[in-house]
Structures are given as C-alpha cells and as structure tokens.
Amino acid sequence: MEVTTHRGEGPLQQVIEIGKHRILTDVKPEFGGEDSGPEPHDILAAALAACTTLTVSLYAKRKGYALDEVKVSIKHGQEGAAYGLHRVIEYVGALDSDAKARLTDIANKCPVHKTLSGTIQITTEAR
To answer: Which PANTHER family match (predicted)?
Structure first.
C-alpha cells in the first residue's frame, strides 16, 4: 500500500491519500495552521489505538472470550530525548484477571505496536 500526501486548502493542511481513503492533517493556529485535522503525531497514536482494538477484538472473538468492547486511549508527546506513547486499555465484559492479562499480551503484539517497538528504517529519495 502506498500513502501519498499533498497540500490541502489551508496554509499547512495536508491531504493524506491511502488507497481510496482521504484524511486531513493540519496543525493548530499558533503554529500557522487552521486545526482542520489531527496533527501527524495524533494520527500515529490513532494507528496504535486502532490496531490494538482490532487485534484484541479479533483474538477475543476467536478464543470465545466474553469481551463486549475494547477502549484504548493514548497520551503522547516528547519526553526528553524520546517520544512517549502511553496506552491505556479498558476491557469491557465478563473477563477475569487471567483473560485481561492474556489480552494485554496480545495487544503488545499488534502489528503497529511491533513496528513502533522495533527497528524502523526510513529511506528518502528526493526528485
């Protein structure tokens, strides 16, 4: 899958195109934008949250866990030399502590979590 971006309508607004989908990203007015969409780091955090809920939900369904819903919140920001992502997972349903622990193990194996926790290599080609 290829992701592309191009300038949107605002001074700093960007249009992200992922296949047939379009997402806007922008920055707050104090940084010169119009706050017409989430900032790029917010989209990164959203990817982790969405991947977590999808991965946990699929696993729970396959194993027959009584999981009614998964709620994920992520606080993020620069913490010294590192960028921090603090994830809180709420399991809604009739689950014991062992089931919740297993689902948390599975959450830590979601593809986006594994990508962000591993070595990332970015190559850049200018045209």
So the answer is: OSMC-LIKE PROTEIN (PTHR39624:SF2), PROTEIN INVOLVED IN RIMO-MEDIATED BETA-METHYLTHIOLATION OF RIBOSOMAL PROTEIN S12 YCAO (PTHR39624)
